[in-house]
């Protein structure tokens, strides 16, 4: 049986969720019985407001127990729920609320300042402030008044090209009491069970953290969730709560590796037997360093909000094929050219998955048609396969830079720059150029302890504002064709990334165009 209600009946006093504040200190927690009662009470109140299975509801909340209760209320009553990122502006929040058609919007004191103005111009929307939380969802939650049917998330894309698009996906077809096949696979392949403790390091409103929240809740694992990521606090949490499973993004690995050796070795991580990461390929040197530190427990997945397909790769597989994101867990990966012709092994093209899940973009049939063909679909990424069917990503179609009619893939240049010891993080994108159409621009986050005027290994100093910029240009020139070389390198203290590791490319383009 797979549902928080079952865990509440079988082991009501066991901990379902712990929310951490600063450091590894808990600020909230809930047992399975408490979480179940809160979820039922919330679903009852939403039902009383007129919501029925399939209706949209939105909430804008930080990581807290209420977030878990809202998710399970919607999952239990069949609502289609849109978690709204807390870092958005009021106008961005208004777009999502209007686009998804939410009739009820819930928020906290922390997000009140953006949700209130976002709702001010929307008609027919009921806004509920959960703080101080003494009214809504205050019922006993003993017997549901609503019809129990499986709900599903309505997530919004990151909006790297235009406004965010809602990703509509079908609700799971299995009866609500059954563990879906994907969750069964997770439990069997990665050893997740009722005795597991899962560390969630990112905002829950994003696709992967939300997916794992639901999966861990169905399986019955305890979830320890950080309000915000801090590398030292993450290690302390693994030790304190005897974490067995965890999820990360590559930028978190970078920040973990920046900790001094004494802090890295100060915590007992022996309970930690499985770590998984996604949100883009991990630079090879970073993953090598993490495997040297944590051992062969680091797995990787390649997936997306749409559910077009999923690839996975284990630590031993990755060590044999460094840089790969793995093979598909269902169907097969196809590499297609612009005409839809399948390309041979080793040749770059757009990555497509067969046997894709059913999805579409709300109010955008043209965009949906551009990423779906029969039962196949794509995230828009570029890559190639090796002889054994392992996928290697090389870029994203939407971010391809056209230099004098030749396609340049930012990821290739980023990987070259990440080989340099002065580079902690990097973003490469195109900027308009009168002569060539576009030119390559690199924005580099400088590694800790490196001064821009320090010469690391330069043989030739090119024209640049700092010695380090010149060194990085020289580094690229030794490794890349001339047309791929950055025309400009900008040095920054920190790249604008979301807590999940997703880069805010639009912010960089606006600043450096």
Folded structure, characterized:
This protein is an alpha/beta fold. It has three domains: 4-279, ANL, N-terminal domain (Rossmann fold, 3-Layer(aba) Sandwich), CATH 3.40.50; 293-398, Luciferase, domain 3 (Roll), CATH 2.30.38.10; 400-512, GMP Synthetase, Chain A, domain 3. The chain is built from 16 helices and 28 strands. The strands form seven sheets. Strands 2-1-11-10-12-13-14-15-16 form a nine-stranded mixed sheet, with helices on both faces. The longest helix has 17 residues, at 32-48. Residues 455-463 have low confidence and may be disordered.
Please give a handful of descriptors for the protein shown.
3 domains; five-stranded parallel sheet; Rossmann fold; Luciferase, domain 3; 513 residues; GMP Synthetase, Chain A, domain 3; nine-stranded mixed sheet
Number of strands: 28
- The CATH class of the largest domain is identified as Alpha Beta
CATH superfamily of the largest domain: ANL, N-terminal domain
| CATH third-tier fold name of the largest domain | Rossmann fold
Strand order of the largest sheet: 2-1-11-10-12-13-14-15-16
The stretches of 5 or more residues where confidence is low (pLDDT under 50) are 455-463
Précis, in short:
By secondary structure, this protein is α/β, with parallel strands linked by helices.
Which helices and strands appear, and what pairs or packs with what?
Blueprint: H1 4-10, E1 15-20, E2 26-31, H2 32-48, E3 56-60, H3 65-77, E4 80-83, H4 90-100, E5 104-107, H5 112-119, E6 126-129, E7 152-153, E8 155-156, E9 166-169, H6 181-190, E10 197-200, H7 207-219, E11 222-226, H8 231-241, E12 245-248, H9 250-258, H10 261-264, E13 274-277, H11 284-294, E14 298-302, E15 311-313, H12 315-320, E16 327-328, E17 333-336, E18 349-353, E19 359-361, H13 365-371, E20 372-373, E21 376-377, E22 381-385, E23 391-396, E24 401-403, E25 406-408, H14 410-418, E26 423-433, E27 437-446, H15 467-477, E28 488-492, H16 505-512
Parallel strand pairs: 1-11, 3-4, 3-5, 4-7, 5-6, 10-11, 10-12, 12-13, 13-14, 27-28
Antiparallel strand pairs: 1-2, 8-9, 9-19, 14-15, 15-16, 17-18, 18-22, 20-21, 22-23, 24-25, 26-27
Helix pairs in contact: 1-2, 2-3, 4-5, 9-11
């Amino acid at each position: 049986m797979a549902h928080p209600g079952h865990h509440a009946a079988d082991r009501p006093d066991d901990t379902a969720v712990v929310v951490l504040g600063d450091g590894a200190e808990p600020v909230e927690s809930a047992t399975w019985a408490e979480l179940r009662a809160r979820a039922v009470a919330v679903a009852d109140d939403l039902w009383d407001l007129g919501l029925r299975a399939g209706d949209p509801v939105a909430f804008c909340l930080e990581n807290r127990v209420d977030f878990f209760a809202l998710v399970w209320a919607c999952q239990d009553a069949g609502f289609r729920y849109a978690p709204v990122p807390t870092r958005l502006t009021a106008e961005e929040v208004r777009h999502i609320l209007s686009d998804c058609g939410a009739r009820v919007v819930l928020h906290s004191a922390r997000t009140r300042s953006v949700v209130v103005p976002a709702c001010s111009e929307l008609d027919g929307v009921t806004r509920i402030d959960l703080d101080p939380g003494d009214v809504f969802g205050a019922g006993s939650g003993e017997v549901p008044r609503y019809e129990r049917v499986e709900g599903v998330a309505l997530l919004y894309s990151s909006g790297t090209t235009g406004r965010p698009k809602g990703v509509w996906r079908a609700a799971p077809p299995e009866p609500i009491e059954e563990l879906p096949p994907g969750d069964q696979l997770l439990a069997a392949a990665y050893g997740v069970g009722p005795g597991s403790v899962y560390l969630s390091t990112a905002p829950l409103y994003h696709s992967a953290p939300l997916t794992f929240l639901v999966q861990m809740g169905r399986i019955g694992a305890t979830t320890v969730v950080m309000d915000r990521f801090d590398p030292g606090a993450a290690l302390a949490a693994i030790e304190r709560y005897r974490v067995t499973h965890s999820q990360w993004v590559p930028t978190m690995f970078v920040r973990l590796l920046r900790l001094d050796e004494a802090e890295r070795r100060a915590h007992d991580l022996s309970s930690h037997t499985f770590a998984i990461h996604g949100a883009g390929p991990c630079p090879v040197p970073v993953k090598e360093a993490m495997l040297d530190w944590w051992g062969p427990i680091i797995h990787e997945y390649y997936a997306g909000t749409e559910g077009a397909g999923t690839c996975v790769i284990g630590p031993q597989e990755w060590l044999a094929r460094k840089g790969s994101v793995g093979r598909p867990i269902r169907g097969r990966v196809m590499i297609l050219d612009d005409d839809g012709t399948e390309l041979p092994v080793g040749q770059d093209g757009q990555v497509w998955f067969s046997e894709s899940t059913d999805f579409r973009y709300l109010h955008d049939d043209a965009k949906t048609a551009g990423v779906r063909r029969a039962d196949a679909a794509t995230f828009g990424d570029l890559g190639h396969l090796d002889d054994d069917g392992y996928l290697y990503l090389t870029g994203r179609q939407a971010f391809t830079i056209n230099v004098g009619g030749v396609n340049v893939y930012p990821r290739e240049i980023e990987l070259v720059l990440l080989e340099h010891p002065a580079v902690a993080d990097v973003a490469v994108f195109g900027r308009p150029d009168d002569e060539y159409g576009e030119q390559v621009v690199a924005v580099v986050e400088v590694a800790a302890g490196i001064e821009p005027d320090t010469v690391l290994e330069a043989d030739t100093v090119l024209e640049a504002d700092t010695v380090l910029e010149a060194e990085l240009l020289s580094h690229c020139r030794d490794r890349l064709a001339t047309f791929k070389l950055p025309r400009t390198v900008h040095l920054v203290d920190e790249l604008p990334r979301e807590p999940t590791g997703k880069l805010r490319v639009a912010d960089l383009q606006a600043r450096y165009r």
